[in-house]
Structures are given as structure tokens and as C-alpha cells.
Amino acid sequence: MFDTVCIVGVGLIGGSFGIALKERKLAKKVVGAVRREATINAAFQCKAIDNGSTNLLRAARGADLVLLASPVGQMRELSEELASGVKAEAIVTDAGSTKDGVVKECTAIFGQKAHFVGGHPMAGSELTGVENARGNLFENSIWILTPTAETPDEATEKLQELIGALGATPLIMDAATHDNLLAVTSHLPHITAAALVHLFSDAHKEHEVAQRLIAGGWRDGTRVAAGSPEMWRDICLANAPEVGKSLDKLIEDLHSLRAMIETKDGEKLQEWFQSASEVRRKQGYFPRGQ
After folding, report:
1. What residues make up the domain containing 214?
2. What CATH number is given to the structural domain containing 40?
3. Would you say residue 286 lies in a domain?
4. pLDDT digits (tens, 9 = 90+) for 72-92
5. CB-CB contact of 158 with 186 (8 Å)
6. What is the pLDDT averaged over residues 200-217?
7. Contact status, residue 81 vs residue 115, Cβ threshold 8 Å
8. Distance between CA atoms of 89 and 93, rounded to whole angstroms?
9. How far is CA 218 from the centre of its chain?
10. SS3 of 217, please?
11. pTM higher than the cut 0.90
């Protein structure tokens, strides 16, 4: 499908992408662009790349497809460096969890030389690093693409074909809509998970026995808090307006909940929990059986 693919940032997502490409023979050569030499060895051992370099332009030289799998906060700087040496007519996409700012900046940076198509694979793990990468990470997941009106149809279609070949389902979406919805479905859950961990940490400082009282609900609700701090810092900053709106709504709902508890309004409390239970249990809401 592609002669040469360059993956910028060979961690969990980039590494899994490389493994999947090689396992399914979707690229003749996969090259990794990384910050540390040690990552090249680890990625090679995991069979995520054929070779790699700490020099971005050297790694990307001649690539038909470039995947930016770095934290969102690095996208602009990497794109500016990459634009000077990227192959003409190459497709450049990303795996960032925010899209509006990335799409606007990167589309302008690459201009007419390369075709930038924003992307977001809705797959991942609280584990990080190429050592946790796996070739089936994207199977049965949604992979969002956010082309603009100026994006050539051929570039979008080729990415859709690739995504399907990886076992994922491509979904075309406006970048601003993506950021609005992901603030609710992804970004806020990570924030609330981290807040619960901080709350537990405070309790544990006062009562060490708290460690022994952790139940399944806490484990399930805080699993994602173990994710990359750098990545989630960048996501919050890049999607600040939408995350702020979602936080305001959550705070408003929590104030309402507190009022129900303080006034001992059992009927409203049950309705509140019942409504949440029904939505969570609806068939078809969670295609991956979550």
C-alpha cells in the first residue's frame, strides 16, 4: 500500500502502528524517527520498524506516508522541521487527541507540498512505550480523520483504505466537532480519574489502611490516570476551551448532586443514578464491549 512509512514517535501508538503495518505487509519499509538511540533498539526488537534515526529529516526522507505519533504539544515544531524535507505529494497525518489547532497549524505549514490529514486512532492503553505496543491495538476501534475542504480526496481515501486494512473503522469528522465531543468522551474522564487518585492520595496520607480498602470501582475509574502526564498536559492545553466547558458542566452537576445528598432527597438521587445506569447499559453504545 505504501513504499516507505515514517513514524515520528515510536511509543505505544507509533509502535503499534509500525507492528501492524509490518504484520499485514502494508508497507515495504517502516522507519522510526525518535529522540533517543535506545528507542531505536527497543522498536527494532519489537519489530515495529525496519530502521530508525534520531534525525527527523533523515528518517522521513522519501517517505510516502508520515505519522506524527508524538505529544500534541510537539506537533507544530516537528511539522516545521519536517516540511523542509518531506517528499512532495506525501501524506502526513497524526495520532493526536486534539484536532482543531493541529489541523490548522499543520495544514498551513505543509501547504501544497505535502497533504496533511488530521487523524485520531481511538485506541490506546494506560501503558506507555514501544515495549507495550501490539499489532492488534487498532482492531475494532474507530479511527477519526479530519480532512479540510482543501484536502485532496485521494489522500483521505488512501488513509481510509489503510485504516480499514489495520482492522479499524475510519470516521470522517470536522476537527472542531471532534474536540467538542472528545472533551466529554475522553479528556474529562482522564481528568476526573486523576482527581480521584489525588483524593485517594490525601486520604492515604492520613490513613494508611486506605490502600487495603480499594475496590473495583476505584480501579476501573482510575485506570487511565496511569497514562502519560506529558501527553495529557498537552491535550488539556490544546483543547482548553472545550475541556473548560465540560469541567464547568461537571462542576454544575456535582453541585446539584451535593444538594440532593445534603437535603436527603432520596427520590432525586435514585433518579440520577437510574438515568446514568440506563444510559451506560444501552446496547450499541459501546461497540468494543466496554
Report:
1. 177-281
2. 3.40.50.720
3. no
4. 999 999 999 999 999 999 999
5. no
6. 89
7. no
8. 13
9. 23
10. helix
11. no
